[in-house]
Amino acid sequence: MRIGIFGGTFNPVHLEHINIAKNAKSELKLDKLLIVPTFLPPHKSQAPLDFRDRINMLKLAFDFDEDIVVSDFEIENQGKSYSYITAEHFRSIYREDEIFMIVGGDMLLDFKNWKYPERILSAVNLAVFNRENIEIDFAKEREYFISHFQKDFTVLNYCGKDFSSTEIRVYASLGLNVNHLTDKKVAEYIKNNNIYSGGEKENYLKKVLTEKRLIHTANVVITGLSKASELNLDKEKVYTACLLHDCAKYTNYKNVKGFVLDSDIPEPVIHSFLGAYIAKNVLGVSDEEVLDAIKYHTSGKANMSELGKLVFVADMVEKGRVYNGVEKLRDIFYKNVNNSFKECLKEEVEHLKSKGITIYKETLNAYEYYIK
């Protein structure tokens, strides 16, 4: 037989997981595809969502095909879920069969750093799918594999779309519909079991923001988190700053006790300063870098932190934004955050000038500092 192994955290399973599984099964002509959720990923110190919920959602997502089977091997094995252990386990079961381990292109690039990659390749073949916004020189990688491991890999035709489980978790935490992100039965399971329901900050936003603004907020969080590791930023800080950047969008500053508005702050910027105040005094955020990022996410300022620049850009290029030039800014963002920050700052200043709007002093300071 031809057997496939598709592993991952699946926290939770999303539409692209399902599409990848369908296409891999078809392209590789698999007789059976094993979906193997991890117990504890090697790079994490804490297990993700309760394994029972992850398994339940996987079974709901793949109940359309009896040849796609959810395996609890890594869950039952507990501990760190290393691929070499999984590969050798299924090789011991399917001794005479051809086994393919299905991995993303980003995993292929890092494969040499996995634990015992040679043991993995002695037990299984790799089948690789690429993802949107990831450029891979497969010829170069193939040359490396053959020279170092004396083994090739299969490249699947299917290219995974830019989906992530993070997107579902963030949307669900803000009470937003996730039917467009995962199987409808999974979406219903998430809603009925209050999975990813959010905490104090998320509940506050649900009360004070419109659905449209909640969607924007979710998209800013997802955009910011997509670059957190690359910039060596603390993900909790990125999450909090992006989550609360618009927390005062519809709040009248005159009704907020203790908040004092400087006379020179223009109307479009008020919610940023008020947002930092609410984050600190209502929602208990004490991290000054996070508060600073919220405070200047609209205007910018000279000498911003990496976190501040990321929130500024994420607010402008999140996938729901529609304006002339946003696609170009997004392309730059995926390649280089600092370059995209400068382009976003220029775009903001040029837009304000074209509208004849007085530009806030901090924005001009930022322009002088970064552009001129």
Largest sheet features: 6 strands, parallel
Average pLDDT confidence is 94
Cα Rg:
23 Å
Strand runs, count: 6
> What is the share of helical residues?
40-55%
Shape: elongated
Task: Give unreliable regions as ranges.
Answer: none
Please trace the helix and strand order, writing H or E for each element: EHEHEHHEHHEHEHHHHHHHHHHH
Task: Quickly count the helices.
Answer: 18
Strands, helices and their partners?
Elements: E1 2-8, H1 15-27, E2 32-37, H2 51-61, E3 68-70, H3 73-77, H4 83-93, E4 98-104, H5 105-110, H6 117-123, E5 125-131, H7 138-149, E6 154-160, H8 165-173, H9 184-192, H10 200-208, H11 211-225, H12 235-244, H13 267-281, H14 288-295, H15 306-317, H16 326-335, H17 337-354, H18 361-370
Parallel strand pairs: 1-2, 1-4, 2-3, 4-5, 5-6
Helix pairs in contact: 2-9, 4-6, 8-11, 11-12, 11-15, 12-14, 12-15, 13-14, 14-15, 15-17, 16-17, 17-18
Verbal overview:
With 372 residues, the chain is of the alpha/beta class. It contains 18 helices and six strands. A six-stranded parallel β-sheet has the order 3-2-1-4-5-6, with helices on both faces. Strand 1, helix 1 and strand 2 form a beta-alpha-beta unit. Helix 12 packs parallel to helix 14, helix 12 crosses helix 15 and helix 14 packs parallel to helix 15.
